[in-house]
Structures are given as C-alpha cells and as structure tokens.
Specification:
eight-stranded mixed sheet, single chain, 8 strands, binds S-adenosyl-L-homocysteine
Length: 257
C-alpha cells in the first residue's frame, strides 16, 4: 500500500470512527434483544469468562454486564471506541468486571477452551460468518455458548435491486436455514434463532443517525470522503425502509459440542 493510500485510509477510519462514536450503538440492536439472547444461555457463573467481539462503544457490553455474572473482555479494532467503552464501564461501576481492549477479531488473544461465552452483535461479518464461527470455536470450552447477530435473508426470493446491493455489501448474506446449517457444521448445537424487531434498525440505529447527518455534512463541507460516506448511509436507510420485509438481523445462538 502506498503512503498516500495509507493516509487516505487512516483519514477514512478517523472520519468513520468520529461519526459512529456519537452513538450508543454502532449496529442495529436493543437492550431487550441482548437480554432475550442471554436468556438462552445457562452456563454462566461469577467466574465465567465472556468476550464481546466487535464491541464498538459497548452498548450491548453494559447490558450484558448488568444482566449476567462473569468477567467480560470487550474487543474492538478502534481504540477510540474502546476508550469510550472503558469510561462508560467506570461510570456504571462495572470496571471490575468489564475490560475493553483494542484488537482484531482475526487474532484474538485467548487460549483454547478458555471461554464460556462468545458474544458478537453486528460485527462477525467483518471476518465473515462461517470463518468467524469456525475460528472462534476453539476458544470456547465444550458446552460454552456463542451468540451473534448476522444479516440474513427472510425470503427465498427478493427484488433485484436489494439483492444487488447486498451482493456488493456482504456476499455472505444468506437465508436463515442456510445460516443455521453453517452454525451446526461449525460445531455448535443451534440453541435459539430469532429475528431482531424493526425498531432495532429504525428507532435505535437509523433515527439517531438521521438526527446528526446534516450537522456532520456541514462540519465536513466540501470533503468528498465525508459526502460519499453520508450518501452511502442515506442509501442504506432508504433501502431498509423499502425492503425490510426481505432482510434483517438474526440472533444465532449455538452451544459448542
Ligand atoms: N457490537 C456493536 C458494534 C457493531 S459495529 C453494536 O452492536 O453496537 C461493528 C464493529 O466491529 C465496529 O465497532 C468495528 O470497529 C468493529 N470491527 C470491525 N472490524 C473488526 C476487527 N477486525 N476486529 C475487531 N473489531 C472489528
């Protein structure tokens, strides 16, 4: 990578990071769905080891800590998200049980069979669903759980426009039965599968963004990277409202065999 490209990428990262760090969550979700997913997990004790991968600023990490026993390590690629997460944990007096560290989901700093629970909301797509399921499996104890959300098709067929959009954004998007088969093949018993309600996308994800988009554009006026980035967000919001019956996020919860 040339130095020029590297700088452009660093700049993109900073910009995207600045944009997303304004929000409590960086993906569709809600406290209710985190608690619902947690209700299927029955192996946790105060000494349990939990990892929240691609934690962002920790919206779901705090809900996990408030509703489950155990020690949570939250990992995200962006150090700024992790700084915010650690500040929030201290504010909520959770700092003894929640520790954020900067790092990559492709190179996790754990030992084999060390973990009781792997959590990842709206982030496994960064490594790819199948690869993540397979690679992370070794870190779980036998009988340990994995709970992740993943973009999934709700129907066998869908309009070409939304198919093309997702083919370009994330080729691994697939139907729920296909994803469940991948979960099983990767060494987990499929324990529970449920779709996230629409409000996880609208009220909790797109509405907060819609409120700040114009200010963000004003602040970065004339910056083509910022303008292109916001155009993409606007397109994503428009597509969700038009095609939401065809796709969404699904919680996949598996138990390591
Ligand atoms: N779980 C949070 C954030 C989801 S957004 C929520 O639901 O609100 C996806 C997150 O994955 C971002 O915070 C991004 O920085 C992080 N991420 C992307 N690639 C990553 C990688 N290779 N390793 C760790 N985190 C990564």
């Amino acid at each position: 990578m040339s130095e020029e490209n590297k700088n452009i990428n660093d700049f993109d990262f900073d910009l995207i990071c600045a944009y997303f760090s304004q929000f409590e969550r960086q993906g569709p979700g809600s406290p209710e769905v985190t608690i619902k997913a947690l209700s299927f997990i029955d192996n946790l004790k105060p000494e349990s080891k939990i990892v929240d991968i691609g934690s962002g600023t920790g919206g779901q990490t705090m809900i996990l800590a408030q509703n489950a026993p155990g020690h949570i390590t939250a990992i995200d690629l962006f150090p700024k998200f992790i700084d915010q997460l650690n500040i929030q944990a201290a504010k909520l007096h959770l700092q003894d049980r929640v520790k954020g560290i900067a790092g990559s989901m492709e190179n996790l700093p754990f030992q084999e069979e060390e973990l009781d629970l792997i959590w990842s909301q709206g982030a496994i797509y960064n490594i790819g669903f199948e690869k993540g399921l397979k690679e992370w499996n070794k870190f779980l104890k036998t009988g340990g759980y994995l709970a992740v959300t993943e973009a999934s098709w709700f129907t066998e067929k869908r309009p070409k426009e939304i198919q093309d959009y997702w083919d370009n954004a994330y080729t691994e998007i697939d139907t729920i039965p296909n994803k469940v088969a991948q979960l099983q093949k990767a060494g987990y018993i499929p324990v529970a599968i449920f779709t996230l309600p629409e409000t996880c996308w609208t009220d909790n994800y797109y509405v907060p963004q819609s409120k700040v988009i114009e200010d963000f554009l004003k602040k970065h006026k004339g910056n083509p990277t910022a303008e292109g980035f916001i155009d993409e967000i606007k397109k994503e919001i428009r597509f969700y409202s038009q095609y939401k019956e065809y796709y969404g996020y699904v919680f996949y919860i598996g138990k390591k065999i």
